[in-house]
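Internal ticket - ligand job 545, 1-deoxynojirimycin:
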Amino acid sequence: MKQEKDWYKELVIYQIYPRSFKDGNGDGIGDLKGMTEKLDYLKELGITAVWMSPVYASPNVDNGYDISDYRQIMEESGTMEDWERFRDKAHERGIAVIMDLVLNHSSDLHPWFQESKKSKDNPYSDYYIWRDPAPDGGAPNQWLSVFGGSAWEYVEERGQYYLHFFAKQQPDLNWDNDEAREKIFDIIRFWNDRGVDGYRVDAISYLDKGLDGRADMTEAFGTASCANLEGTHRYIREMAQKTIKPDNLMTVGEVIIRNTRDARDYTGRSREEFDMAIPFVPPVVEIRTWSPERFKKDLEETYECLKEDGWWARFLSNHDKPRQVSLYGDDRRYWKESAKMLGCYLHTLPGTPFVYQGEELGMTNLYLPSIEEYDDIDTKNYYYTMIREGASHEKALSESQIISRDNARTPMQWDGSANAGFSEARPWLPVNPNYTKINAERQMEEEDSVFRFYQKLIALRKENPVMVHGDFRLCCDREGPVIAYTRSLGRETWLAVHNFSGGKVRFDHEKLTGHGEVVISNYEEPETEQGSVTLRPYETLVVRV
Ligand code: NOJ
Ligand code: CA
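stdout (structure tokens):
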């Protein structure tokens, strides 16, 4: 699709986790054929772009985030023809196609790595990060991988260690090698030529490892130590110059953001790196540290920092996080209220909203009864690390259940039939038993469902430029569960108020009247008076003021 300048600002991006979206050939695993079948559903929801998690050839140690051939589609996802069909049918419906680029590492089964590990002097020997053992024969430094254990793995054949910031089957590529970098850019060009509209770029903050002493070798996590070094920014700019800018493609980088400078460096327009950034926060940290207060602080900071010269990716969910209604809302007593409130919050913030499959239905976490039933490599590593460190089985399991990325990866709940209509075969990961109540078919029939609410929010965005381009101003106490702000564009001002709690709270604002025009809300009649409103549990309210 030919794109205008800044087209990414108006998008609503829907993330598909292909394995879990829809099975089109009855083997229990979601695929491109299934995704194509559901394009009309997405069209009806109103989204304007799909970002698909990786569908390239992969041994699936990390479900596609370990790629063994960047130019092939993995068997389970289908064929290149299936991908092209998806692309064409998406484009026919005005839906842009965004691919996931995993370029920090490849699979250990990628032919480059298979060659690289053979010797120190083969043509691919320098495509990955190899180092000699420490004097005692151990790993070159103390760095740990994100998934637990050392970030270094020894290979007998070479007599050296290679670096892997994620699983040991995900060796880090050496971006300092000019030839390797050019080959990586060729991969992007390959997909550009196939009509891709944009990219989500995976784990891209650590291209420059700083192993020459600029990174801290004694810090536990290499990913923390070498994040955002100058070389990384240089490589991202080179990539953008050579492969992204010529076609005006959209990009969103998954990056580490520690402060406003990092945010500006990755997404400041003049920097020419990414259009937007998805800050990576490990689920364990997010679960322990999130609060409405923190949201307010972050909102203000990120708005101020990028309002002149950048743009925001807004998301509450993805395939690496627990379900948003379980994490930030109440997935029991106020399930519907909180699912809608979170949706309204997401869509009324400045920036481009990302909807993760199933959040438009209010899908919830699913705690599996034993570690064997989990698929996620991160969950398993987390569990076994806890056990090694002396935790009881019960404690290790209950913590793993909460942080598990599988919470977001259970099959999409299409209808009330067997396997939630996801597949005729037994799905690769259990379906959440609440599918008989929470499913797409049912919600498309019900007038006041979460699905209908999302549909309305997305339609509002298309009709009201204030939602896309309006200024943002926080207008609530820094303490407490209410998050409220105005969005203004020209003579139009909207006030959005969200109660992030299961209690009743009063919110004062001079512009509130007993009869303001309600744009959207999740309760029948708002309890507004002159100058205030009493918010009910998880109430959300947007009024024109
Ligand atoms: C971030 C991805 O979102 C996650 O799913 C993956 O495990 C890591 N990067 C490694 O590629
Ligand atoms: Ca399948």
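Auto-summary: The pocket of 1-deoxynojirimycin (ligand 1) is lined by residues 62, 65, 102, 166, 202-203, 254, 319-320 (CB under 6 Å). Residues 123 and 388 are 40 Å apart (CA to CA).
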